Amino acid sequence: MGKEKKKMYFLLIAGILFVSFNLRPGITSVGPVIGMIRDDIGLSNWSAGILTSLPLIAFALISPVAPQLGKRISNERALCLGLAILAFGIGIRSLFSPFLFLGTWFVGAGIAICNVLLPGVVKEQFPEKVALLTGLYSVAMGIFASVAPGLSIPIAEKLNLGWENALLLWAVPAVIGTFLWLYISKNTRNQEDVNIRVQKKKRPKYGALS
Hints:
The protein is mainly α. The chain has one domain: CATH 1.20.1250.20. The protein contains 10 helices and no strands. The protein has helices spanning 3-21, 25-28, 34-41, 45-62, 66-73, 75-95, 100-125, 130-158, 162-168, 171-202. The N and C termini lie far apart (46 Å). The chain crosses the membrane at residues 46-66, 78-96, 102-118, 130-155, 167-184. Keywords: Membrane, Transmembrane, Transmembrane helix, Transport.
């Protein structure tokens, strides 16, 4: 394996893991602080219920179109887009409370894109290690899904940073993942262009019949 291929190999594994880190915290971190959000903003109980249901609604609407998005712009670019949408959603719901519901919907939409396309990327990039990497990212996803709600109250109350910063924390892995997949998608595109040029050079050239 060449130096460049080895670099991309490890970057892809890191990218897959960073996607898995982001598949649950944007949702599970909200539950423990929903009471604080309700009291701070003045939400009714039914509004708080809608807030926790919005990601599921986004899943239902976005998941069916995610494969078409992957085919249109490539799975790698779609993962990058999904993480960017997730980071944007976390940011606006945490920093601008009037956009709490809209931001939460974007969180669900971003996660839906990544959730649908990640298994396909694993199969495409690591066809001989599908079981290993699927198990690895499933474990990572489970760990972060459990850690996120456990950190919400300590950050919001013990550190006195409020529910906004407790939720905003999870924009960090989303932003890192976005830039990581942006780099991967650019290099993947460049490699595809090289392969196309190589294939064109290999094609036999037929001259005019004499």
